[in-house]
Amino acid sequence: QVQVLESGGGSVQAGGSLNLSCTTSGFTYNVKSVAWFRQAPGKEREGVAGIYTGTGATSYLEDVEGRFTISQDNTKNTVYLQMTNLKPEDTAMYYCAANPGLLMQALGRDEYMYWGQGTQVTVSS
Prior knowledge:
The protein is mainly β.
């Protein structure tokens, strides 16, 4: 059974840090593209960070570059999002998405067909 599961969300004060995890299971092909998206109230869902697990190539939303880091542990089928120096504008529901056949990192919402349920990140002023 295909499953994408996020964890690690929570509430922090501005300047704090959080680490999110995305574990995938049920895929026959483990080399795939995985990305983090977020959606805040009143805004469209946007790509935050993506990684192609075949090479480790990454891409980032400009607003988070230098503060967020996406990484992988293929032995655990897990992708991480390390978030530092969090700002109130980072507050959103964060989603993990996967495409088992895409051979590149990508941040396009339409590139992904498997999605997790989301984990809430709240950053207070």
